[in-house]
Amino acid sequence: MNYFRVISAILLIILLETILFGCNNSSELNGESLKTQNHINKTVSSNIKFSIISTIYDSETFTKISGASIKINDSITIYADSKGMFQIKDFNIQENTQLKLEISSPYYNTQTFFINPENNIEIHSEFLISPEKTDLIGKITLNLIAVECQINIDNQTVNTRKDGSFKLKDINCGEKLITISRNNRIYVEKNFLITKNTDFLELELSSLTYQNDFTVKNIVTDEQDNPLSQIIVYSEDSKWVTDKNGIFSFQVIDDNLKNKKITLVDPTKKYLDKIENITFSVNNNINIIKLKKIISEKDNSKISGMVFSNSKKIHNSLEIEFKNTNIVKKTNTHDDGWFDIDLEEGEYTLTIKDPLDIFKTHTQKLNVNEDSEYISVKLYTKK
To answer: CA dihedral in degrees (318, 324, 326, 327; nearest 10)?
Structure first.
């Protein structure tokens, strides 16, 4: 009986040790499994996924910048749309790593931004980039003559110096609207491309389009309304030469300008120089200017003539007329039909009329030159 009890006690002890050993092994296994699972979880969570929706703005004007390039982590490049927006969807990156964005656009400084993304989020942001700047030096002329006026670019306004020069500092690069005004009146507005390499800008106003301007047309003629070409015309700030129709024109760009003092010079010296003060307006913009021909003694020829008839005696009241496009000269016959007259060289129409109505009217073409001294004309009586 005692032997049976001893055996039972030994078996009980063995059973208890087996149970305790099994529990210890189970705990160790579960611990190792947990460590492995934790490592797996950590490996999976080392990469994160996120999205970005953003807009790019000018840092000064806050206008949207279309077409800007965005380089992501020095590898991938995307571009902003026409509204300055760009998107990055479901982008993968290692946890605790910054996202690098390098944004650039023509006439803007390239700028770099860093973002600390979080897993499974959508980032909405705005990026401001600053424009490139330059100092601008220039000159304004009108028909190559310096002009004093005001010039405005990017809301900076300066007055030109007497030599037409100007300087503007820290002008934003890009296509800019340049406004030129005078006496508080805008008369030129034009877009120009300004870059860092634009170190000098010369504006010739005669080649630009004016606002509300008008053209004054001037016609130079002789005293018989024949147009005179190649006449040189000067004003205080300009010079012109008349064309084959005797015309020179200029544009008026200043509402306060109502007249202009000009000097006309004939380089051939056939016509007298003339100083004229011409007036004009929008509704009255055509002027006719007449020049007087210079008459010298060597240009005149003294002509003597005889009018005769075989049937009747010539009386002293015949009317003699020499006429061309420039002049008309008249005289009368003396006793026995003689006459004398001074004429410039040129082509004439000679007409002889009898106020007593005895002789028929006589007409002929006549060329007067330095060799012309005497002419004779035969008249016929009326039947």
So the answer is: -10
